[in-house]
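Listing 4. Sequential folding, example run.
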Amino acid sequence: MMYDALSEVYDFFAYDFDYGLWTDKYEALIKAQNPSAREICDCGCGTGSIAVQLSKRGYKVTGVDLSSEMLARAGEKARREGVHIPFVRQDMRLLTLPHPVDALFCACDGVNYLRQTRDAAAFFARAHECLKPGGAFAFDISSASKLRAMAETGLFAEDDEDKSYIWQNSLDKSGSVLTMNLSLFIKQQNGMYLKKCETHVQRVYSVKDILPLLEQAGFENVLTDGADSDERVYFSARKA
């Protein structure tokens, strides 16, 4: 399962992520579409960093992710921070909530992991179904230029005394699918290193790929922040 091995070191290697700024960004995107939003679903919540911060800001949050290991670490983080957040294992293409919510978002490349256009369409349709009338939907993608630049660079690595990784990237012949092969080396109590491997696959989406899918799902007031030439593009929309 993607992210099950990475979950063990995800927060360690995400030291340069400013989750406060990410939370500010998504709170602003949500408020711009639905100023009264109080109940929020975080799709692809990972280790729960944004969900925890939103909960501490007074929102009622539910976290959804496909990786049971990421959800386990999200639950530990929420308990450590003294907040109550239900974390649920679901495929976001089949997203189902007990009742509609005020807002729903998917941060940090979650949509890029939907490999086919039909997968993104399915998620957008489920997101629309899970929102109250007037509900806000927001997400981001790593841009086409960013993912293609990662393929050109080819390899990333980081070495620490206790944890290291090698990340190798390649783009398919169509230029639309980036495959990322990750090797993790984690120091054990006996001084030996345990190697874990994962393969991540992301779809290269452009803004023009995304916009018609949102409209087909029934969203209105679709807004974008960023362009294909930027590293990241944010989208927000509202359910009529």
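-- end of first protein; second protein begins --
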Amino acid sequence: MAVYRGWWVLLGLMLVYAGSNGLLTNSLQLFYPLLTEEFGWDTETVTRPAKYMFIVGALTSPFAGILLDRYSSRHLMIVGLVGIVIGLFFLSKIQSHTQMVIIYITFACGLSLGGMASNMLVLSRWFKAKIGIAAGLLLMSSSLGGALLPRILNYTIEQYDWRQAMLVASVLGAVLMIIPMIFLVKNRPSDLGLKIDGGVEGDDTFAKPVDLDPGLTLLEAVSELRFYLLAFVTASLWFVIVPLLQHQPLYIQNDLGYSGSELANFFSFLFASSVIGKFSFGWLSDFIDKHFSLILSTLIFALGVYGLSRLQADQAVNMYLCATATGLGFAGVFSNIQILFANYYAGNHYGKILTILVMIDSLAGGFAIGIIAKMRDSTGSYATSLQLMITLLLSSMVIVLLLYWISKRSTKQYSGA
């Protein structure tokens, strides 16, 4: 029997997501210490473009969603991904901070068209019965990109310089993102005479329609206390995840004095651990209550951040242990919060509700980059920032416990218990 074409589409999307997130979210921060050295920028200045990238991405995502619904997702993704590759190329040529900001805003628009939302949209058209495992593999691909790409770029930096490494990043982006979109990714099964999950047009044996609970409307969702509690949790988690990934190179290399190769190893450990975390916590959430799975992953994340706050120079083993705990924790948090969203709001209006929560995520992460940078520049260290992150993670665990209690109480009331 021929392999269902959807698995090839998934492979293409995995390569695209590994390239886009692996480069823009998980690798470009490796260049920050070199940019501060060459241009004399402080922490807030060098991380400001990334802040704008997340904020602009949050604001443009709803408009991109409208375009993706109306026009060919594949063609729009190619446009966005080509923009990213061109941005990476010109990033190797920058001579001013303004140029860097413009390129990062280009990245934001490119990710709105070719990032997570568009990947999941295409994936949802090809898989329904097996959407769980397909989505899990897609999410893991960003961590695989984060584990491999920094090592390639760091090697290029050591052999040549950061500008040559950025040119290599643009080539890697073209290979990982553009080529798979052209040869592997298709909009929907019907374009090839197929049905979702492997059926064939005219054959009702496969992919029969699945009745879905209509779920809550957006108005009903925002009228509940748990929506705002969940918004606080997801904003707090992203307030930690995004700046932690963006600022770690500056902390580890500039503040603690580790070498560029040790920093690349740190990122490889972190993202290799996150591959395990995304799979294991996704699997665990099928066997224990999803709230407790999120609490456990948040606790591990908090322990990893605490370890980073106590890290000293010349403690390479401890650094890799911190990377492992942080990678496991943040990957579990990333997966579990998405699962909890779906658990609460899956239905006919899920997309609208999810858009609001994703905007909250991105805005919190974007503004956090600047806030943490200013705290670092004003205090001279990341100590206060790391303490704030730990406090937010512990607070999130308490709120998730409250969400669990509210959900249990609502279930009992609904069942008449």
